[in-house]
Structures are given as structure tokens and as C-alpha cells.
Specification:
alpha/beta; eleven-stranded mixed beta sheet; globular; 20 strands; seven-stranded mixed beta sheet
Length: 379
């Protein structure tokens, strides 16, 4: 196939070649015939849903999530071919991440022509140079760095800083200028702060800590640690692979020194903000209110659902006493059956209704229904 590509064969033709192979047909649950024409005809006969479901299982090794499945169904309904979809799956961020996490990692090395690159103890490259090379490609696998190697402190390359602080585990920081990078955490670099936008973070097998203050970042939870996601400082974070009850905590309350977390159901009877205690700066209360369906998740749809499920009390707080103003996190279900978390904080409008200026989309938990969330999942 490399020779075919070098000779000018298009990626679409190569993808179709894979679709017509005995191995592909077998992996998709069919009976291989040894004839590429009949193989291709069998694959083409699959319904879009069956084809996509099998791709999720065989390329990404998981069941399809509702949002992703709906997206690809729409793409195929619009005329996108099976070969185009296969190309999309193989080049997706999730597949790139999983391939790096499960393979030998040669694609992530500084110089693949030198065995081991900077991951090889006999071919070490300076950390700053290694970071620079990795960032040039937009892929940083922190499993190839050692926190103990940064015992003297920190090293910065471009928008990424690694800090060892003399311990066996370290932390990473993506500056506000970072955009479009993929960072793979590791047991030795299990903490990251993300100030930039449009970045992708993948957890490790450790109990990782991810703090997001930028917007439109994506966090993949693929490896199963009891992670902590501090998302209240950022907006529009998408979380893939969140499993309620696993021990991972999504902190989106926007409060400090939170001493209690409450989930209230406003879908049947509206929650009255005047009956709630929001606490003080030293003893804040994190309050979540479920508001039911929010359609496509536009601000207008969220406001409409929120004002049916919650009665605003116009409590603006008291700076001298430290009393906090009215604040809750609305939990809604979007049309893709995912959980959306919207932060609400009262302003001085005195309108006694929530308005779009008071709402901030904090996070979407892909494929997670609100009913499955408990206090233990939120903070």
C-alpha cells in the first residue's frame, strides 16, 4: 500500500481497497469470498447504521456514542461514501490517540530512524528539544518524558511547560497561546492545566488531574483512572468516555471552598432559588438543577428550559459578609442524549428570570444521561 500511495494512488482508492479485502469483510462479520468485487458488494450492502457500528467497534474499539453516530449517519445520508467515512475514522483524533497509546509509539518519537528516539535511554534528546519537535507536529506524548529528569524544576518549549519539582510525578501547563495540540498524559505526568483553546487531552492509567480555563477543549477518558476534571474556569469543554460512578469527578460548580454538593430535580416542580442557601466564600454550596430536554443546546433553548425548572430569587450576595450570590449549574439533556452543564450566576438585572447573559456552557459529557449522575460525580 505504501508503494501504491507513492505511485499516486489516492487515499480514497486505498480505503476502498481495504473495504474490499477478505480481512475487512471478516472483521465486519461477513464471510470473505477471496474476490474483491463480491467482497466490496457485501460491504456496500450494509446499512449505514450497521456499517458505522462495525467501524466504531473495529477502528475505535468501542460502541458508538449517540452524537458521533448521528453525525456520521447524516454524512452518509448526504452522499459521503463508505471509503470517505473509513478515512474519517482512521484519521480521527480518537484513533490517533488510541494508536499512540497502544502501539510502540514510533510515530511519536523525535527521529524514528534512530531506534527509540528520545525515549531510548541510549539516544536521549534534551527535554526542551524533544518538546519543540513534538509540538511542531501538535502531538505530545508525556509518557516519553520523565518527571525525575526535571528534578531541578521546569522546562518550557513554546506554549508547553513541564514541571518536575524534584518528585517522581510532574505536571504540564498549556499556555493560552496553545491551540490544536494533542497531549497524552502519563503516570509520571498526571496533571495538566489547559489555558489554550481547541486542544485535546487524553488521560493515562493514573488518577489524573485536568484543569481547563480555555474554551473548546476536548478531554478523552480512555484509560480508567479516577480522574479529577476541574472545568469551572473554562467553557465549551467536551468530555468523551466519562463513566458515572467510576470515581472520576467533574468539578463545574464555579464555587470556591465548596463544602457541599446537591442535585435537585426541577423537571416536575420548579426549584425556588429563594429556598436555597448558596453559602459563603469560605463555605460555598455547589447546587445542580436538572432541567430536562434542551433540544440542540442553544442558549435560547437552555434559557427556556431553565426558567421552567428554576425560579430566580435575585440574590446578588453580600461582599462585606462574604455571602455568595445566587448560582447553580443546570443539567440538561441535548438532542444527542448527552449531558450538558450550564453555569448560572445572577446578575443585577432584577428580572427574576434567567437570561442568556447569565448562562455559560461549561461542558458536555458525551453519551451520558443526567439520570445516571450522582453527587459523587460532581463537585
Amino acid at each position: 500500500w505504501l508503494n501504491q500511495q507513492t505511485a499516486g494512488t489516492s487515499l480514497a482508492s486505498i480505503a476502498q481497497g481495504f473495504l474490499s479485502s477478505n480481512e475487512f469483510v471478516t472483521a465486519m462479520g461477513g464471510t470473505a469470498t477471496g474476490n474483491v468485487t463480491s467482497n466490496a458488494a457485501w460491504v456496500a450492502s450494509l446499512s449505514p447504521t450497521a456499517f458505522l457500528t462495525d467501524l466504531y467497534q473495529n477502528v475505535l474499539n468501542r460502541a458508538p456514542d449517540p452524537v458521533g453516530l448521528a453525525y456520521w449517519q447524516n454524512q452518509m445520508a448526504g452522499g459521503e461514501s463508505q471509503a470517505d467515512v473509513l478515512i474519517g475514522f482512521s484519521g480521527s483524533t480518537e484513533n490517533v490517540i488510541k494508536s499512540a497509546a497502544t502501539s510502540s509509539g514510533s510515530g511519536w518519537l523525535i527521529d524514528p530512524s534512530v531506534t527509540g528516539g528520545y525515549a531510548d535511554a541510549t539516544q536521549q534528546t534534551a527535554t526542551a528539544a524533544a518538546l519543540s519537535h513534538a509540538l511542531a507536529n501538535g502531538y505530545v506524548n508525556l509518557g516519553l518524558f520523565s518527571a525525575t529528569g526535571l528534578a531541578a524544576g521546569s522546562v518550557t518549549s513554546g506554549e508547553l511547560t513541564l514541571t518536575g519539582a524534584g518528585g517522581t510525578t510532574g505536571s504540564a501547563t498549556l499556555a493560552g497561546t496553545a491551540a490544536g495540540d494533542i497531549v497524552i498524559l502519563s503516570p509520571t505526568f498526571d496533571k495538566i492545566s489547559v489555558a489554550g483553546n481547541y486542544n485535546t487531552i487524553c488521560d493515562s492509567t493514573a488518577n489524573d488531574s485536568v484543569t481547563v480555563t480555555g474554551h473548546s477543549n476536548t478531554v478523552y477518558l480512555l484509560n480508567g483512572g479516577a480522574d479529577t476534571l476541574a472545568l469551572s474556569g473554562g467553557i465549551d469543554t467536551h468530555v468523551v468516555g466519562f463513566t458515572p460512578g467510576k470515581g472520576t469527578v467533574v468539578a463545574v460548580s464555579g464555587t470556591v471552598a465548596s463544602t457541599g454538593t446537591t442535585i435537585l430535580d426541577g423537571t416536575h416542580t420548579a426549584v425556588n432559588g429563594a429556598t436555597l442557601s448558596f453559602g459563603t466564600t469560605s463555605a460555598a454550596q455547589a447546587i445542580f438543577v436538572t432541567i430536562g430536554s434542551i433540544g440542540n443546546g442553544t442558549a435560547a433553548e437552555v434559557v427556556a428550559a431553565a426558567n421552567k425548572a428554576y425560579q430566580v430569587a435575585d440574590l446578588t450576595g453580600n461582599a462585606s459578609s462574604g455571602a455568595l450570590g445566587e448560582h447553580v449549574v443546570f443539567i440538561g439533556t441535548d438532542s444527542g442524549n448527552s449531558t450538558e452543564l450550564w453555569s448560572f450566576k445572577i446578575d443585577s438585572s432584577g428580572s427574576h428570570t434567567a437570561n442568556a447573559n447569565e448562562l455559560t456552557h461549561v461542558a458536555t459529557l458525551i453519551g451520558v444521561l443526567p439520570a445516571s449522575l450522582t453527587v459523587a460525580d460532581l463537585a
